[in-house]
Design a protein that fits this description.
By secondary structure, the protein is mostly helical. The chain is built from ten helices and no strands. It has two domains: 5-142, no CATH class; 144-224. It is 83% helix and 0% strand.
Length: 224
């Protein structure tokens, strides 16, 4: 992940905190719904990171323990402003949920059977579904085009949708398969690179033999 250090150093800790605070305040549905908003805010608007950076951080956040939104905020904050940025970004994304849940805990039983409360959250759930699908589409577009990625996505989707297989092990298996595929691809590439000079040298030897035979005086005398 390459960034302009001058540009990232200009980002104040307050701006970093406020950006993640707004995202945490207005995002319903958890970390997966937040991915779309983070991508819009960090990549499209502020251009603090690239789409590939965002995808890499999401992969790391999903592969490590903890909530994906918190892990992503910590990773982005550290990337932009080091340890201080990681602390500020994490605090910003967590604080709204902490305050709201703490406040609602005193009134949740009173609103639990309220018709307006249920209707509102039904609408929110529908919008959250759209945000999650949007995040999936954006991440899918950033994947490397190839048979391996397509096969892995299709296999993981089928297993997660139609079986009770633990998604944690699914992520681990995906990482292992990715490492194995990378080593295999590198080995094939090295073999091809070693084979190319040999073929070129054989061609040079063949062409030099032809030139020698053409200028061989014995061959010339035989022809005469």
């Amino acid at each position: 992940m390459k960034h302009n250090s001058r540009q990232t150093n200009k980002i104040s800790l307050w701006t970093l905190f406020w950006t993640f605070f707004k995202t945490g305040l207005f995002t319903f549905g958890g970390g997966y719904a937040m991915i779309s908003l983070l991508d819009e805010e960090l990549v499209s608007k502020k251009k603090w990171i690239t789409s590939q950076d965002m995808l890499d951080m999401l992969v790391i956040a999903e592969s490590t323990p903890g909530v994906i939104a918190v892990n992503t905020a910590t990773g982005v904050g550290f990337r932009l402003r080091g340890v201080a940025g990681a602390i500020v970004a994490t605090a910003g994304v967590v604080l709204p949920s902490f305050v709201i849940i703490t406040a609602l805990s005193f009134f949740i039983q009173a609103f639990e059977n309220n018709t307006w409360y249920k209707a509102a959250f039904t609408g929110v759930q529908a919008c959250v579904t759209v945000l999650v699908i949007n995040a999936f589409v954006k991440m899918f577009r950033q994947l490397e085009r190839g048979w391996f990625s397509a096969l892995l996505v299709a296999g993981a989707f089928i297993v997660a949708l139609f079986t009770d297989f633990n998604v944690i092990f699914l992520i681990i298996i995906g990482g292992v398969l990715g490492i194995a595929y990378s080593f295999a691809a590198d080995a094939v590439a090295k073999r091809k690179n070693k084979a190319l000079p040999l073929k070129d040298s054989e061609r040079l030897d063949d062409s030099s033999d032809e030139q020698r035979s053409e200028h061989d005086p014995e061959n010339d005398g035989g022809d005469k």
